[in-house]
Amino acid sequence: MVRMIAILAGMGLVFALVFGFAGSSSAVQVTFFGSGLPTPDPSNFEDCGPTTFGSKPVNDNCYAYLKPGNNDPKECSYTLGFRAGGAPVARLRVKVALMRDGKVIGRDNIQIGSLDRPAGDPYVTKTFRAECDAKQLRILEARAYVAGQETDLIATDSIGSKGLMPLMPDFFIKIGPASES
After folding, report:
1. How far apart are CA 79 and CA 162, in angstroms?
2. Alpha-carbon distance 134 to 162, whole Å?
3. Residue range 27-73, pLDDT digits in tens
4. Element (H, E) at 18
5. For the chain, what is the radius of gyration of the CA atoms?
6. What is this structure's pTM?
7. Which end of the chain is more exposed for a tag (fewer CB within 10 A), N or C?
8. Strand-strand pairing, 136-146 and 149-152
9. What is the pLDDT of residues 111-135, one digit of tens each?
10. Which H or E element spans position 165?
11. How far is 26 from 51, CA to CA, in rounded Å?
12. Partners of 84 in the beta sheet?
């Protein structure tokens, strides 16, 4: 029993050293938080009030996403988390492309004033809406002031993707031009 506790304590110490003190070599880390799930269209909820038990609904023709027969693509929410490495990062500007089968299906621009956050909550998250079913998200352009110097984060290899799991890269996010695979 004592050996097992000692082994577990040793493994816990190794885990804490590897994951707790693992720093980032990038000035900016980007992580995909989700979701890629369809977002409700509020215009589809007009006159869709709640009903009480035994009463008839206000409107039977309520749809959360797209009404049947509508050929518009569904929109999904995508959330990215950005976190500073060791140096202060300000005025982050990122151009993002959503890709499917090697083609761009959506684009967005993200701007963040500062990545200065407390250690317990290091990520600044931004959510944008775009067409669903993206297979990859590409960071096409990223610029920021790192330690007071304007920096092209891609050209200087100062931005990297990081998965939510420690030591695992984020396979959904790629850095570089849309033409690269």
Report:
1. 14
2. 18
3. 888 888 776 666 665 555 555 555 555 555 555 555 555 555 566 66
4. none
5. 22
6. 0.68
7. N
8. antiparallel
9. 999 999 888 888 899 988 888 888 8
10. none
11. 53
12. 28
Q: How many residues does the chain have?
A: 181
* C-alpha distances in Å from residue 28, one per residue of 2, 68, 89, 130, 153: 43, 43, 8, 24, 8
Written as six digits, the tokens of 50 are: 């709640």
Question: What is the amino acid identity at position 53?
Answer: F
The C-alpha atoms of residue 147 and residue 54 are separated, in whole angstroms, by: 64
The two structure tokens encoding residue 156: 């200087």
In the three-class reduction of DSSP (H, G, I as helix; E, B as strand; rest coil), residue 15 is classed as helix
What backbone torsions phi and psi does residue 13 show, to the nearest 5 degrees?
Answer: -65, -45
One-letter amino acid of 174: K
User: Tokens in use for 39?
Assistant: 């977002």
d(CA 52, CA 31): 43
